[in-house]
Amino acid sequence: MKIENRQHFLIMLVAVGAALLIGNSLIYSPLAKLWSARSLQIRNLKNQVADGKNLIKSATTLSNQWSNMTANCLPSNFAGREPVAHGAHLLVTQHRRGHHQHHAAVEK
Q1: What does the buried/exposed string (b/e) look like for 56-84 if buried means 16 or more CB atoms within 10 Å of the residue's CB?
Q2: In whole angstroms, what is the distance from residue 49 CA to residue 45 CA?
Q3: Tens digit of each residue's pLDDT (9 = 90 or more) over 37-94
Q4: Is pTM beyond 0.70 here?
Q5: What is the pLDDT of residues 8-39, one digit of tens each?
Q6: Residue ranges per domain, the chain?
Q7: CB 75 within 8 A of CB 81
Q8: Distance of CA 93 to the CA centre of its chain
Q9: Hey, CA dihedral for 28, 30, 34, 40, is it positive or negative?
């Protein structure tokens, strides 16, 4: 092999190596990062879809539980709660008076 051909071959080899390094840093690395980010986003979206499907499956159960809770709670307005609280207070007071009177009668 002549020196001129050898130098030409070595220059081409260096140029190909440099092109591969530049291509790796400018093309492959950014694309690999983009693909990783996209796969993470796809995985998150698949998890969200699965969670949504589970919520749809349990919608009737959740709705029944909510209806049960709202039916068994106190009224939302304060005026509606006041007579209930006052009536409960009267019952407790009457019970205590009856309890004390009962003990007074037993002690006599």
Answers
A1: eeeeeeeeeeeeeeeeeeeeeeeeeeeee
A2: 6
A3: 999 999 999 999 999 999 999 999 989 998 888 887 766 665 555 555 666 667 777 7
A4: no
A5: 999 999 999 999 999 888 888 888 999 999 99
A6: 3-73, 78-108
A7: yes
A8: 48
A9: positive
